[in-house]
Amino acid sequence: MKIEPFKVELWMNEHEEKAVYNTGETCVDSISMEELFELAEINKEEKLTELMQKRLTYGHIFGNPVFKQGIASLYKEIDPEQVLTTHGAIGANHLVLYSMIEPEDEVVAVLPTYQQLYSIPESFRATVKRHTLSPENNFLPDLAEVRQLVSEKTKMIIINNPNNPAGSLMDEGMLKEIVAIAESVGAYVLSDETYRGLTQAEEDSPSIADLYDKGISVSSMSKVFSLAGLRLGWIATRNPEVIEECSLHRDHNTISCGMLDEELAGIALAHKDKILDRNKKIVRDNLKILDEWVQKEKHISYVKPQAGTVTLLYYDFDRSSRELCIDLIDNHGLLFTPGDCFEFEQCIRIGYACKTEELIAGLNKFSEYLATI
Ligand SMILES: Cc1ncc(COP(=O)(O)O)c(C=O)c1O
């Protein structure tokens, strides 16, 4: 099966290890097992002894019950049996699309977004109708246009909330409008919610799985919980057909997730509030720094992000985003992601949830560079 190369992943594979200032990272500053145990007030020696004695079998085929309980606690309407655990959110998105989309189907997908969300259905020869978000509209969907894009053939509307790379956030009112559009043609809504919970404002962002019985939420331990190394994500939905189809297909590509990974993820979610407090503080403190920096840089502008860990920085000089990013990484050790990875130009994506010192050092370095333009 032919598929478009995944531009953002290719970029990271080639350049991430060269970074002196990793302002390309999209996870909130990762934590170690030791930090996780400290945070959860678990006796390290006792826990490690217990883990070392475990026989390394497949573990729980349908997912560790404690982990699934923790996932369900992130939603209002979801029970543990309405959750499937996967290899990251990347595996969850793949499993949903692979299970639900047929060649004759149409899907509507927003752009910019995580590329697999439109490239996978395209590879299955489904018709993908793209809805391009714009900075003028704060990277939020134009509902009238979405209404025009759907038809009786629309199988799924695919959104990414909060959005990577823009950092925009659809509120409950807008999500309900999307649900009404989907309902009018009987379509599912797949919402990649990998950054859900990392809001700038106090109120939480609702999940599509709580708002719609054909809503499918995907998320993971990677960004919000700083545990990308566990490689764990999930699908949560109240829709029995989706659970059934995804379980059927999951047997062909997963068997089970790693038993140690799921145990650690279960511990993390049992202490989710502590990790979330840590991580909201990082994204809020760091965005303040980024915002002040953007205000004083005459070559740079942006739509201030509302949630997540990333945003697009627009520049006002004549250079392709790829040329600019290659110059910055190869000659200055500064990692950003070219806008062209998202099919956007005149902009680069920054990840601002790294250690605060690293962000400040990276922005200072970028200022020195911009001063030469
Ligand atoms: C929107 C979005 N979805 C999914 C993923 C995949 O995340 P993971 O597989 O680490 O959970 C990413 C990673 O960058 C992402 O930004």
Q: What characteristics describe this protein?
A:
globular, 373 residues, four-stranded antiparallel beta sheet, Aspartate Aminotransferase, domain 1, 2 domains, alpha/beta, 14 helices, seven-stranded mixed beta sheet, 14% strand, 42% helix, binds pyridoxal-5'-phosphate, Aspartate Aminotransferase, domain 2
List the helices and strands and how they pair.
Blueprint (H helix, E strand, L loop, with lengths): L6 H9 L17 H7 L4 H9 L12 H8 L10 E4 L1 H13 L5 E6 L4 H8 L3 E6 L10 H7 L4 E7 L11 H14 L2 E5 L15 H4 L3 E6 L12 E5 L2 H14 L5 H12 L1 H25 L3 E2 L8 E6 L5 H12 L4 E2 L8 E5 L4 H16 L2
Helix pairs in contact: 4-11, 5-6, 5-10, 12-14
Pyridoxal-5'-phosphate binds next to helix 5.
Q: Overview of this structure, please?
A:
By secondary structure, this protein is an alpha/beta fold. The protein folds into 2 domains: 7-32 and 273-371, Aspartate Aminotransferase, domain 1 (Alpha-Beta Complex); 34-271, Type I PLP-dependent aspartate aminotransferase-like (Major domain) (Aspartate Aminotransferase, domain 2), CATH 3.40.640. It is built from 14 helices and 11 strands. It has helices spanning 7-15, 33-39, 44-52, 65-72, 88-100, 116-123, 143-149, 172-185, 208-211, 240-253, 259-270, 272-296, 321-332, 356-371, and strands at residues 83-86, 106-111, 127-132, 154-160, 188-192, 215-220, 233-237, 300-301, 310-315, 337-338, 347-351. The strands form 2 sheets. It has a 7-stranded mixed beta sheet, with helices on both faces. A 4-stranded antiparallel beta sheet has the order 8-9-11-10. Strand 5 (188-192), helix 9 and strand 6 (215-220) form a beta-alpha-beta unit. Helix 5 runs parallel beside helix 6, helix 5 (88-100) packs across helix 10 and helix 12 runs parallel beside helix 14. The longest helix is centred in the last third of the chain and has 25 residues, at 272-296. The chain starts with 6 loop residues before the first helix and ends with a helix. The chain binds pyridoxal-5'-phosphate. The site of pyridoxal-5'-phosphate (PLP) has 13 residues, from helix 5.
